[in-house]
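@channel sequence for tomorrow's demo:
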Amino acid sequence: MPALDGLRVLDMTQYEAGTSCTQALAWHGADVVKIEQPGVGDPGRGVGSGADIDSHYFINWNANKRSVTINLRDERGKALLFEMLPHYDVFVENYGPGVMEKLGLTYEALKAVHPSIIYARLKGFGLSGPFAGFKSFDPVAQNAAGAFSVTGENGGPPMRPGACVGDSGTGMQLAFAITSAYVQKLRTGEGQHIEISMQEAMTYYVRTPVAGTQSWGDVAAERRGNGWNGPTDLYPCKPMPGSDGADDYVYVIALTTRMWDTFCAAMGRPDMVVDPRFCDEQARIDNNDALKAEIRAWTVQHTKWEAMQILGEAGVPCSATHSTYDLFHNPHFDERDFIQDIDHPEWGPIRLLGWAPKMEKSNVPMTAAPLLAEHTREVLSDDLGLCDEELAKLESEGIVSIR
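structure tokens (generated this afternoon):
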């Protein structure tokens, strides 16, 4: 049985921060019903698609969900949502500041209809404080949480991290909070209000740079680029055939004396262990340029995969720089069945990155993200017992759309 079998979620999320949360719940077995505006849907459906079909972006964040369209700007559509509400455990939204209030879909309004509802809200800066009315997207949240300030080269400007942890990192924390609230509800029968700020959630991922200042917040952390003191750094490798060299690098960490000794042995350079310039940590720091020149002289003789194989097998923490192309052409992922091949009704066969947690007692196959309104008939029939004639009338009045 899927771990969250029986948990039902009304999903009013869009773009990435909220959709990553509800997708995670769906991948553990929750029934996630995405509520969208007829004819429009989640604006993420059109991000970067360049075509009149759902975008790669939307498909990557909405697998395993069902789509129902309801016009919530019409009082009859809103009434329909309130009729559905008692059939669900959780309501999740990440619209801009004030949108739920304008729609009349506040926690108080939903709780009056369904007292044990778990009502989860994701906002850029939270629901209180001087920034509460400010809008946010992933880079805004990362910058507001300090992530830009610790990314980039020392002496250079702050830089946007490439991974979208401001959105999906917040979504994962909210998914954990919802799951915790659901466990509590199973014990007590009570729902609750959950609020998460993207800015505050992002600070979770800068705790190590903060701790590195040893100042309890009195000193700003510095940018370090790719390297630390000593041999830890990103090193160029021999380009792969046909490569432009942009991602032909290997990253190596050798923080301890034992790691350093192992690294030298793996490179076939035991002489570097006793070299006075590199014989201890302080010497390696004092002679950092010379040290890294010696390491580069070895890495450029090997492709990134060869360097990773040699060093990894020896016990040196390292990785070839995996491009996004490499992720989908990776024998390690292939052996672990991480890349998922699924059929999409518009795109046909597609490949998606999998879900990292592997649970012995729970397995939920990945299914394609829903088309807009794909499940309106199914859900409203099952939840509210509406017949085809009633659904057709709602559609003719612009309250719902049916695919």
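heads up for whoever presents: Residues 233-327 form a domain with the formyl-coa transferase, domain 3 fold (CATH 3.30.1540.10).
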